[in-house]
Amino acid sequence: MVVLRRKKELRYGALVVSGLSLLLGLLIYVAIIGFFGVNPLDALASIARAFVTPTVVKDLLVLSMLGYALLVAFKASLWNIGGEGQFYISMLPGIVSTLYLFNLEQGAVVPPFAVVLLSVIGGSLLAAAWAALAGAIKAYLQIDEVPVTVIMNYVVYYLLNFLVWGPLKGKRTFGYLRTDEIPGVYRLNIRLPMLYISDPALSFLYSIARQVAYYSSFLVGAFLAAVFVWWVFKFTKLGLYVRIMGSNPNYLRATGVNTKVLAVATMALSGAMVGFAGSLYLLTELGRLPYELERQTAGYGYLAVLVTWLSLLDYRLVPLSAYVVSALRNAGTTMQVAGLGGVEQTLILIGSVLLVYSLTRFLIEYEVKVEW
Amino acid sequence: MHSDDSVAVSVKGLRKVFPGGVTALDDVSLDVYSGEILALLGENGSGKSTLVKVLYGVYVPDSGEVRVNVGGRLTKVHIREPIEAMRYGIVLVSQVPQLIDKLSVAENLALTLSSLKWKGSTPLSRVSRFSRVIEKECERLGFKIDPNEKVYNLTYTQKQQVELLRSLVIDARVLLLDEVLTYLPTREKRKFYDILLKLRGEGRSIVLITHKLPEAFEVSDRIAVMRNGKILGVVNTKDVTLREVRSMMFGAAAQLLANDKTLLRKAVKAPKGEEIVVEGLHVKDDYGRDVVNGVNLVVRRGEIVGIAGVAGNGQRELLEAVVGLRRPERGTVRIAGLDITKKGAKLVRSLGVSFIPDRPLEYGCSIDHSVLDNVAVPFSLANGMLLKWDRLREVAEKIVSEYQVVAPGVEASLKSLSGGNIMKVVVSKEIESASRAIVAYNPTRALDEVAAAFVRQRIRVKAEKDEVAVLMASEDLDEVLLMSDAVYVANSGRLYGPLDPESTPREEVEKLMVM
Amino acid sequence: MVVQVTPDFLMRLSAAFSTLYLVALGHSLFEKSGMLNLAIDGLFFLSTGISVFTAVTAHHALVGVGVPTALAPLLATLLAGFASMLIGLLMAWVLTNLPVSHAAVGFSLMFLGYGLGILAGYRVRLEVGNIRPYAYPYELSTYLTAATTAVAAGLTIHYLLYKTNFGAAIRSCGENPHAASSLGVRVARVRMAAAALGLFILGCGASLFPLLWQRYWDVKTYILGYGWFAFTIALASGRHPLLLILFAAIFGGLIEFATSLQALYGLQVDLAKMIPFVVSLALMVVYGATRLRKILEPPSSLGKTYYREERSV
Question: What's this model's pTM, rounded to 2 decimal places?
């Protein structure tokens, strides 16, 4: 067996690799859970169904925002696996502002809009700083950012646990350990009424519309993220440098660019975007912080890695990739392997798809010849 | 004169083409006899390294055959890995010692010896078992090497000694020495010569790759000259003169350029202000060797200073130090009066100095990105946060048309261009973006004649019209002579010159290059 | 603060030490050959899941056959080691023969490890609930044996790496696989051997987590991230088998007695859980920022894609 560099890149290589990863990954997943007693046909049906359930909307939008955030770092070959930590740490300013600083019971006079803005900006900045720390450790100490960002995720989990147990403990939580719910006035949902529509197609469309309305802040956020990423990479010097750093930082160094500062700035930007999504998530979906965060997280930070990788760092493919991953995740949660939680299902799915991806990515630039 | 059973290794019709279209070996046939030292001469890119790497199993040829003397008979073999070559008694020693720095001498040797199951050693045997053997061989050869010493503590000479040691311990019948003696100090070189002669007496074959003619003439029995992947000829050393061989090596090029219609006339100029001043520069290379040993030079505004010399005499490290990409050990570099010696590349770039690096794919471009993106980098260093793509696109398109870059458009990724066109992009963006000085290494490498002539012309125009100072090193002697106002010759980390290209005979320059 | 050396103390320290040390030791051997192992936490959890499944299943099988059930946890350890070994072989083959990213492969196997570990152990967990009866015997002698075995393994690996031809070959692949190949080393084979042995040890070590140390397992333990502790101490100790003993003992002690510290200093439980991670980070920073890095450098070619201009397998 010989591995040779291709003379010309594989046509539509990106799509072939992504598609192959999804298909083969899915097959492996189905085979594995089949071995443990799940009917493969049921599994596939469940997956197919998941693509068209309204519950996909939330994940799709969140993962799009996060996908764009990670795209910024991945383009520079900075593997920001710290999405989880950055996502949750960004919620602190929101909790603090809405429940304590501008607590309605104490007669807050600041308009809700300003509080929301403060939460989002504060959250983004805090997450940016958190990510920048990992970036600095990588740039100046050459410590691989993957273990560093993963460990930093754990630090955030336990830090937030501590805060929820202690200073941020809710007063009206009926025995459950968590923060209070943030006041409704600060929440960003648009609630369309439940309507009964006889026509199934219209009914379906309306349920989608309800979801979109409820998560409209995510829609706005995803749109802003997309536009921002597009703008950065199309018009700014930073975007150009980030892209080149991902491929050949030596070229940048040879032209005198400080690649260390660039790395930190890129991580900061990526973290800020994750934080933006996280603070919106608090105000739109979560509404509070739970205790034992590490047990209850949806794992968006890790799912986003899959989304960004599958998009092959093409910003146009991020929403599509987010859609696919959301569907797969939702399929996982509906499939039951003897009472296991949904998150656990997705682990095998993510792993399989990523494994096939990592093993086939090279086929874009190399070919394999087998000599018998 | 030699019968068939005295042939140690024979290759016939070897062809090797690398992806990208470079023909490294073009129907090469050669016999190497036992008990001889064969010198393999040629310029960079002539194919000599590729040939020995094929014999050592580092590369597999596209076609042709290799035959090795096994028990008195020439047998066809397929060598796919170094270990297989070593089993046939073929060992390659490179200019850059292929040793593991962090391991000791004994451990390095153990890697080879245990792979060959030497004297019944197994993977789990102790490495120290080999120490005695090493000590014995060292004594025999007069080397002073401690088997337990870590390789990174050895001098360059000692490392080459270890390589030689390895070859002898495994009783290599064919030693391929790729520019091994080039960096050795003269005294050590003589000692090596003695050893080589002794080995020859033992019936072994030695293929000595070198570009230094005196070396070839000192020890070899025969000389083979290669150029562009072909063997131009094989002669008996005692039947030729140095001059004849030299003209074989360089001759073709001289003839080619006699037809060059773009011979550039240099106008008589009044001396202008000093732009680049280098004083007493000492620089180390990536392996810690001293490769620039006290260099002084001056480049004035509008002047082209050319450094001639075979690759590996310190030119790369010198130029990298001048543009701030490599910290010199001693000495100073001043540009426009400013001491930039250890201040980094950003400062140098901001002064309007551009750089065509020796490793263009590593340092001169980003191959995954488009022509436009690559051009954008040097042209947007000064600007603010936003890129003016209109202007950049104009510049890129102008470059593509003027330099005749064959590309589907400026959005095309560099990866999709041929090697020559990639080089055009690398070179052109630096030439066109320079405002104060251009520092270049092999500016016309991999370019066809027309493109090369155009590049030279552009550089000349920049120098004359924009008073840009040009410091250029090139392995192409003709280019240096053609373009420069002053010529230096780089040899073993020193610069000889300045020489006036108009009045200095070409032979003299060549002598300085290969002495 | 006076530390009382009670049998209980020794057992807890031995458990923490043995687990972390063996995992870090196996991981270090793997990485010494030049391959990055980002799958460590996934492999860790997978091994725990497999070992729990095997311990319980084997216990019931042995009872049926009338063989002493103390053998069950031992079988569990071996099987976990074996499973990790297989994954190691796969990783080594792929990483040496194909131009793929070490990080991507490791990372994907991490997720698979979590998922497969869950599938391996959950049924058994549902059935028996408490795995305490199926763990290693809760006796001082057992625990001290574990610790001594771990140290013995470390000494053996140290000898292997630094005194034998095989060890020299492993380290050469980690430093400069191209030069190693030029010297006659068969890089693919050496890496596969190192991966097999290394991950076998890792798997065995990880099996001690539920069966010796925590004496507990549930599906959610995959979030604990203990594999990353082993990763950190391997990094900080320069992947050196002997120095690792010190780091594993200290770190193991820190984690195990964090809860005691918690009680002693009134530290809230989450802060106590956070300490090992913060210390990990600090350790990495100290390592990167000081001369320690120079002395305890990672293998020069660690994580680098190994691809020659042309390759034959």
Answer: 0.86
